[in-house]
Here is the input.
Amino acid sequence: MSTLKTKPTKANVNAFINKISAAEKREDCLELVKIMKQATKSEPKMWGASIVGFGSYHYRYATGREGDWMLTGFSPRKQNLTIYIMSGFERQAELLKRLGKFTTGSSCLYLKRLGDVDKKILKELIRESVKIMKHRR
Here is the structure.
């Protein structure tokens, strides 16, 4: 059975964010840290080399594979800010309708910049996802 490659590290979150050359993306990341700290009541940790994660939960699949993953997090990718909404989006369709400009993957919300979305709705989306994931424990 394969093991998960992306795990929490001891790397410094602030140092990682401060290395982001684009000022707007760096500021967006600092704001996401505040939003996610508030939603999870957890301090940020680096997960692998490029993901800032908050909190954790344990998962176990029917196949027997299991592990730990963050409750929520983000990664400042070249094209987008990737925000990890671990609950997925099925239960949050109404919030997504009011969010603004974005695209999604299975558990990823992709934004060009925070200014493209309603931050109040984004905060609610993250809070709801964290709440859902905490109840799955």
About this structure: The chain has a mean pLDDT of 93.
